[in-house]
Design a protein that fits this description.
By secondary structure, this protein is mainly β. It is built from one helix and twelve strands.
Length: 149
């Protein structure tokens, strides 16, 4: 897991061949005022889910994990807390891996939390179970989906 800001995201572009395209797109488009939904950058290899979500409490939110995609959470408006727990410490899977949706779920409690403000970026790898959209009110965010290559 990497926590940074969109202004410093260039430091992490070398970690994956698609990160530069993602961060360049985010830095050069007004995505706060863009329509909600999927934004394709490179087909299924790289896309963004532009979302507006009602925040959940820590007790309501579950951990999610992915195998095929790296999630890049970029907060646009509101405040968000994202929980995390190491994959090898997960004890209870409530949903086994769904290949079509690329996710599995656990109701384990996170062992760490990150508080995000607009402009913050959180990169979570497949080995990073995470519980996003924790907070109050509405959260406007981008979730970059980067195919693991």
């Amino acid at each position: 897991m990497i926590l940074t800001t969109i202004n410093d995201s260039h430091r992490y572009e070398s970690l994956h061949p698609l990160f530069k395209a993602l961060f360049d797109y985010v830095r050069t488009h007004d995505l706060l005022n863009a329509p909600l939904g999927r934004i394709e950058i490179d087909g299924d290899r790289l896309f963004i889910n532009n979302s507006l979500a009602k925040a959940l409490s820590k007790d309501e939110q579950v951990l999610e994990m992915h195998r095929r995609y790296i999630d890049v959470h970029i907060l646009l408006a509101g405040s968000e807390t994202i929980g995390w727990k190491p994959l090898d410490k997960i004890e209870n899977f409530t949903r086994q891996y769904d290949a079509e949706g690329d996710y599995m779920l656990s109701d384990d409690r996170p062992t760490a939390y990150v508080d995000m403000t607009p402009g913050d970026v959180l990169i979570v790898w497949p080995e990073d179970p995470h519980a996003p959209v924790i907070g109050t009110g509405e959260i406007r965010k981008l979730i970059g989906k980067v195919l693991v290559e």
